[in-house]
Model the fold of this input.
Amino acid sequence: MASLEAQLHAAALEGDLDRLQACLAAGAIPSALVPRHVRGRHESALHAAAKRGHAACVQQLLRAGTDPNIATDDSVTPLHQASIHRHLPCVEALLAAGAAAEACGWGRVPPLYIAAAKGDAPSVQALLAAGVSPCPVLPSGWPPAHVGYRRAAVLRLLLAAQPEAAAHRTSDGRTPLAIALSKQRFDSAHCLLTEGSVLPVDEVLALLGQQGPEAQPLFAALPARQQMTAAEWAHVPAPCAGLAAVLPAVLGRSVEKAALLVRHLPPADSERLRAAALCLARAQQVHGVHLPTPLVWRLLANSAAD
Done:
């Protein structure tokens, strides 16, 4: 007959709360590690419950005194299990019980790395709320922002906690933007360009220049946040979709830079800007009003951005 601890593990794995409580009442040791037929690894009932997402069993085992940081032979904690299988209630229960949110296991990476790689935004948010660094120094693997390229929602959380995460590099010098673009995750690339710390203009232009027409709207993120020289504008496609939206921001910094942007507008946006200029000139003539030139430019820029 299986030991009480083996029965406890089986109950946790199946989410059978009544049987789990009966095993504990009969004297099963809640923190016992039982053998699993997976590379000879031993794990606890808490690992089993967290892996399968049985939050009620997780809470019962924690109340029974199971260490939330109990680890398997290869340093995997219940929090790792809950993170990799995307079980938010278990993640939250373990964190509330004092689970070490930055413990490394499974290739020597912490739960945040696992949650980011899985695209699990709710778990990423819970881990960050627990005080986890969004950019831990890892002995191996990419930082969370590099593996989080699959979901812009994950990147948004990481960048809100630390915008500088956008500028972190792998051992071969790649940024999260480079990874996102190589996977054609343009929503994630847009998030990095608009919400992360700014990257060198020439580096971003080179990365965007390797993409197809579907990446054109990403070019607008550069002049929206940074000054660009005429030489840098020469590397922006002409026409380039999406630039009209940032014309007011560019005009607010420099008339000359706004003129460079206008030269890259798609024909439809150029025609709309021209029509607005004619309408505004006609309105001034009819009403005998002469608006200041900077105000005219501002009105036209806003009309193009709408």
